[in-house]
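Troubleshooting entry. The earlier prediction with 2-acetamido-2-deoxy-beta-D-glucopyranose gave an output that would not parse, so I re-checked the input for stray whitespace and re-submitted. Clean input:
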Amino acid sequence: MAYQVLLPSKVFLLGIVLWLLASAYISSCHNNQVQKHFSLSSPEKSNIQEEKKEAVSEEELDSEDLNVFYPTNQWQTLQPGQAVPAGSHVRLNLQTGEREVKLPDGEKYQNNLKEQKKGQRLDLNTHGFTTQELKIALEKFKEGAGGAKEDKARQEEVRRRFRPIEDLKKDFEALNVVIESDLQIMVRLISQFNSSSTTLEEKIMALYDLEYYVHQMDNAQDLLSFGGLQVVISGLNSTENLVKEYSAFVLGAAFSSNPKVQVEAVEGGALQKLLVILATDHPVTVKKKVLFALSSLLRHFPYAQQQFLKLGGLQVLRSLVHEKGMEMLAVRVVTLLYDLVTEKMLVETAERGQDPPEEKVQQYRQVELMPGLQEQGWCGIVSGLLGLPEHDMREKVLRTLSALLTPCRDRYRQDILLSSTLQGLRDEYQELAALEQQDGEENGYFQEMLGTINGFIQELR
Ligand SMILES: *[C@@H]1O[C@H](CO)[C@@H](O)[C@H](O)[C@H]1NC(C)=O
Ligand SMILES: *[C@@H]1O[C@H](CO)[C@@H](O)[C@H](O)[C@H]1NC(C)=O
């Protein structure tokens, strides 16, 4: 019941936030000074952000991170990354390390909200609506903002109709609402995380919120300016698994397609720390996020790839793939290797004098990936994963098998198990593709899989 009564307030708050953001954006186009206080995306950055969007999509598409959890009156365990409806009670169970959630006690929640209305400040992160909701709202807002900038006349019109941001700020000061810039928020979150007087739950919440901000390239670089990145990197050394997990989560987002941050992280020892966690006894949830951070750090950064090989990274990944309970990570490892192999190949086979520059080509030449993969038996490890049950896993393994054909061809030709697995898959997909065609679907998914398998069998001959 409390929900229905409270919903309008929530919408009202969200409305204020969006209205403010809209005003901030419009004013920032005309007033550089104001722009300093509101670090919303500026037009020149839209290309970079497109790229970043692509780069982070893997983690965002992670089904685990898209779940919405609907709480009841009982405490229930919340999976990492699950969103909850606004106003739910979330607590950290320090015994199990899990977050738990339930519906709020109606009366208490209403009182909270009354206080909040009188309140001291509007904290964008924790009150009224979930971070998840805000993320979506901000995304929507930014998309809208991008379109608005193309329409100058309309912008002028809007500007005339809205009051300057300074006026708005005065109004909000009168309401006791404080608006922070992204940098201020990040400084606050980092010091909250770094402080010895914060509880474990508060530290995790700080990291969870921080992850949202560092998706933006310039925000992640700002993190360097006040030592914030190093603080998060040292979070990997925590004795708490949850701190390791969420630190890796933040780092993975910050590294992604962000060379400045990647360089600083390698210099700050992030690579060793990530590998140590993967090589030692940790829950799969921790290793999953650490693998995500490692992948972001290595992609498009040949220097880190060299260091990774020198530090015995391939051996660490090999043990990880064979470790009991880590099966779900095997496909992620294979995907990372596929990315590294194809990235190197694309750079090295590009026409000379074109993009990429010669220096970059030289750097990739020094990444001795193929010999390492061959020596350590990755040909067999990857082909062994073809027995996995899910179609999309098989698809990724097949893709990687093709990419590894140069070093692995001889081995694969003599591999009796591999050829019988391939025959089995061919039969299976022939049947599935036939069913697909009966349903009137030409060039369907199974047809494509069948083509890939036949193509690979052909290549092996
Ligand atoms: C984090 O805490 C340490 C020790 O308390 C302190 O020396 C350091 O300056 C802090 N770093 C940041 C970025 O707040
Ligand atoms: C972090 O951990 C690594 C090994 O796990 C250790 O060598 C290093 O000294 C630790 N650093 C700090 C600051 O505790």
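This one parsed fine. Strands lie at 76-78, 89-93, 98-102.
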